[in-house]
C-alpha cells in the first residue's frame, strides 16, 4: 500500500483505494426543534462577540471519519490488551509487537478521511487569530484538514511523529505519513495473516544516529504530557480572558483536560459541548423557547447532542460560512 504524493507532507494525504468521505445527512435548521433553534441562536450571538476561543477535542471528533477507537473491539488487538501495548515497558520488552500495533493504527488513520468538523475548526483558525485547538487525538486528521499548525496542539502526541529511543540522540520528526515505515511492517494490519515476530533490523531505525530504534511520538501510559504543549496551552489561557471553550467529542470531565474547562470558566468564559452523548453533568443552562431572541446574557453553557461532524460546522457557520463534506467553504453572507 502506498501514499499518494508522499513527498508533499503539508497537503492532505490519501492512500490508494480509500473509500470516499463518509456521507451523513445534513443538519438543517428546519429539522431542529424550536428549543434547539433558540439554543443555536443564542450560541451564534455569543460566538460573534467572542474574540479568544479555545477548542478541546477528543475521539468523538473523528467518529464520523470511520476511525476505530483506540481500544477497538473489546479493547483487544490480536488478542492483546491495547492499553498494555501503549507503555514504555511494552516497547522495551517487545518492540516488534508494539510497532506492529502502531503500524496498524497508522494505516487505519490514513484510511480515514477528515470530516466537516475537522475542516470547520481549520477554517475557524484561519479566520480567528486568537483561536487555539487542543486535540487529544493522535490520528493526524486535523493536520490533514490543513489546520494551521501554529494553532493546533497535540496533547497526546501523534501517530505520525517519530522519535529516537537512544539516550544520546535527540532526533524527532513530525508529520511522517509514509506507510509502511519499513517493508516488514506492511503485514501489521493484515489480521488474516498470523502474527510473526519482526527482528529489530526490520523495525524503524533513527536516520540520525543510525543505531537507535524509532518509537511512535505518542504519549504512553505513565508518561507526562509534552511540556512544550502544556506550556503553550497555559500561555494562551494566561494571555487574556478566553471568551469561549468548545468541548468537542470528549466529556471534558476527566483531568488533566478538564482543567482547561475549569480555567476558562474561572475567567468568566462560557462553554459549548458537542458530543454524541451528553451526560447529566454536561447539561446546559435552563433555556426556554421564549429566549429565542438570541440573548446569551444569562447563559454559561450550551450543549449540542449528536454527530460533531454535522453540529460543529453548523454552530460555527456565522464565522466560517457553510462547509461541505469535502471541506470546501463559501464566504458567509
- General shape: elongated
As a percent range, the share of helical residues equals 25-40%
Strand order of the largest sheet: 5-4-1-9-10-11
Order of helices and strands: HEEEHHHHEHEEEEHEHEEH
Spans of at least 5 consecutive residues with low confidence: 1-27, 286-292
The biggest beta sheet, please? 6 strands, parallel
Mean pLDDT, as a whole number?
85
Protein structure class: alpha/beta
Rounded to the nearest angstrom, the distance between the terminal CA atoms is: 43 Å
Provide the β-strand percentage band.
Answer: 5-15%
Figure out the total of helices: 9
- Using only C-alpha atoms, the radius of gyration works out to 21 Å
Based on DSSP secondary structure assignment, what is the total number of beta strands? 11
Which short descriptors sum up this protein?
333 residues, alpha/beta, 3-stranded antiparallel sheet, 11 strands, elongated
Provide a concise account of the structure shown.
The chain is an alpha/beta fold.
Describe this structure in words.
The structure is a single chain. By secondary structure, the protein is an alpha/beta fold. The chain has helices spanning 34-49, 82-85, 88-93, 95-111, 116-127, 141-144, 227-238, 257-266, 308-320; strands spanning 53-57, 76-77, 80-81, 131-135, 152-154, 157-164, 172-173, 214-218, 244-248, 270-275, 301-305. The strands form three sheets. Strands 5-4-1-9-10-11 form a six-stranded parallel β-sheet, sandwiched between helices. The chain has a three-stranded antiparallel β-sheet with strand order 7-6-8. It has a two-stranded antiparallel sheet with strand order 2-3. Helix 5 (116-127) packs parallel to helix 9.
